Amino acid sequence: MSSDDVHDLLDAFRGGADPRETVADSLARLKEVHEALNCTIAFLDDRATAAAADSARRWADGTARPLEGVPFAVKDVIDVEGVPTTGGSWVSSDAPAVRSAEVVRRLESAGAIAISKDATTEFAVGGPNPPRFGATRNPWDPRRWAGGSSMGTAAAVAARAVPFGLGTDVGGSVRLPSAWCGLTGLKPTMGAIPRTGVLPLSWTVETVGPLCRSARDAELLFGLLRGPDGVDPRAGELPPFMPELGDDLRGIRVAVVGGYLTEMCDAAVRAGIDALVASLADAGAEIVEATIPSASEVLAIGYRIVFAEAASVHRVNADRWSEYDPVLVSRISQGIAIPAVDYLLAQQFRVRLQRELDDVFAGADLIVVPTCPSTAPRLPDGTVVVDGEEFPLYAAQSRSTMLGNLTGAPGLALPTGFAPDGLPVSAQLMAPPHGEAVALRAARVFQQQTAHHLAVPSVRKLSDVSSGVSGTTPD
Predict the structure, then answer these.
(1) CB of 210 within 8 A of CB of 165?
(2) How distant, in Å, are the alpha carbons of 18, 310, 330 from that of 327?
(3) Strand intervals (E) in 296-441
(4) H-helix segments, 143-266
(5) Cα dihedral sign for 58, 59, 63, 68?
(6) What's residue 471's pLDDT?
(7) pLDDT on residue 466
(8) Residues 97 and 79 sit within 8 Å (Cβ to Cβ)
(9) In CATH, what number does 8-230+241-455 get?
(10) Catalytic, out of 116, 149, 398, 470
(11) First vs last Cα of the chain: how many Å apart?
(12) pTM of the predicted structure, to 2 decimals
């Protein structure tokens, strides 16, 4: 059975489908996909098979839970009990985790079944070619990168091995691979989902979020994942989450932000944004224009904070940096060299930026910006191409996504079409803090009107690609 959508899979189970067969099929598909794309660090066969047997019993005796029998993938910076968490690094201990991360525990308590630990850039901050496990290739074209840092999870979900996975997001690491692999990925409000049991990187900007096939799945998963756990100090009490119903967007104001955020942006990405905005307007949304005056400063200041905080985490391993990804070493070294006064000024900048976003949200319920300015980066160098011009990956990839990390605002990446190179393009819906329901509603309405999120990549090995790119097949 193809693992396309959580809701469809649950409907199939209600109709008599066997979770044991689904999990076995998912594991087999994942191993096949891994051979082509290098997306998986550990296959959890025994653990998943035992859980699937329990799910089959629960469906049979009427005690099924909300996600009963649904397989999912876990980025390998997130603990799964009994399985080592490598962070994609040679430096990590091979000792198994003694307890699953809170997000994994919540999903498994709801009946979902973890089947894999997925590839990541080293410690979620290294480059696209981590020395220990190597790059994860894009399901749409194996000559391209799946995107970081939740690269293995994105590839597994896009290739239909699992209907969803868990990733982390520090500067776009849920949303960027979602965009480049044609997925719907949610970075929630800072503190909405606890990070207990996740390898630390940047404690003031880091979030956990789902990578999915659809907005309706993201909505379901967010409702199950959110809420404090009493351990993560950033995860406090939250307002109730009430999914917004309805097939129209009357009364919703959508701000289209231009300027810096769209200056270096490929024509195909801009066309996707235009199509999204037109669709939202057709559904009744009011479209307004807005500006974010400090947008051009966000990327550099965001990196300053992330690198400084990453340095504080990894300085303890300074005698083993020779084993680290050179990109990671460069970033940590930059972080160590940042004066305390500059770090504090960067934190003060976040307050100013939040006020600028507040000004936009005073006249709008949502903001539309690119998720990223290009289609997926080329391997091995990781360059991106915007309107025929080549740019370094790190000068381009997080121009829009870092905005949500610095302010704590939620961002939802969703596919908006395909570029001439056959690869997905994406837009991002941003909402005020704790405004996920509005973004998810708008995305759900858009996906009811379009089929971009249903397209399926024809996964091929690099050796099988002589020219052109992998095509699509109907869902």
Answers:
(1) yes
(2) 45, 13, 5
(3) 366-370, 384-386, 389-391, 411-418, 424-430
(4) 151-158, 175-181, 215-225, 260-263
(5) positive
(6) 42
(7) 55
(8) yes
(9) 3.90.1300.10
(10) 149
(11) 12
(12) 0.96
What totals of helices (H) and strands (E) does the chain contain, helices first? 15, 17
Q: Is 11 exposed, middle or buried (0-12, 13-18, 19+ CB in 10 A)?
A: exposed
> With left for phi above 0 and alpha for psi between -120 and 50, is residue 227 left, alpha or beta?
left
Across 29-41, average pLDDT: 98
Q: Is the predicted pLDDT of residue 475 greater than 80, yes or no? A: no
Q: Are 464 and 439 in contact (CB under 8 A)?
A: no
Query: What share of the chain in percent tops pLDDT 70?
Result: 97
* 321, burial (CB in 10 Å: exposed 0-12, middle 13-18, buried 19+): middle
Q: Which of the following is catalytic: 75, 89, 398, 470?
A: 75
Cα separation of 36 and 313, whole Å?
A: 34
> pLDDT tens across 179-209, in order?
999 999 999 999 999 999 999 999 999 999 9
3-state class (DSSP) for residue 385:
strand
Q: Catalytic: which of 55, 100, 150, 173?
A: 173
User: pLDDT digits over 251-295, tens only?
Assistant: 999 999 989 999 999 999 999 999 999 999 999 999 999 999 999
- Average pLDDT value over all residues in the chain: 95
Active site residue 75: yes
Q: For residue 173, indicate whether it is catalytic.
A: yes
- As beta bridge partners, residue 457 has 472
